[in-house]
Write the structure tokens for this entry.
Amino acid sequence: MSDYSIDVAAYSSKNIIPVNFYNKFEYSNKDNHDLIMQIIKDATKDRTNLHVLSVDKQEYGFISISFQCREFQKKQPSKKILNIDYLFVSKPFRKKKISAFENRKTSEMLVDIAISFANEIRQYVPVEFLAAEPAHDRIAPIYLNVGFEQLINKNDVLFLKL
Amino acid sequence: MGYKMTENKKVQRTTFPKKLTKEQIEQMDNAKSKTATISRAVAATKRVKFSRLEKSV
């Protein structure tokens, strides 16, 4: 058994300081800073919640999660969906298998955290689905490999029945 | 349900579709719970300490 301390800290309007949050991570030139700042700004307005994954106090990445309720058919119960809005891995940890995560990648660990989190929330809110719309095609396999399905005729929308 | 860049390089927030076709609704209704996936994810995160209101410093 390893001695790593793995933590997930939640950030919302109650505790987020945008500049401090942004500076927790390292970025590459290709990262879209406007997009990340928009996510942080949305967290300050509780439009999304951010969950930071860290190992021994070092931040590895975060996921952005929000809740949506959709009524697709009249007289039918609405569908309650937990959305993974964004998944970000800090530059030094991209594409690397991390020993603290039993040699899994940070992105895979973040998806596991979202699934585990959704499963826990179901005790309080009848969430039925975890959904994602990956910003890049290269991220989709992370979700598909763990059992997410592509929505028919809208393949960029992925969902997992909980 | 995500963040994307538009062609004119503006950040756009997308949400889960508000309307679905009958076929898509049936797909969601008939989807089976991925209990194996959930169990594996829960096992993978069993050593993770979740803290809900950590102060941002």
Observations:
- The mean pLDDT of chain B is 85.
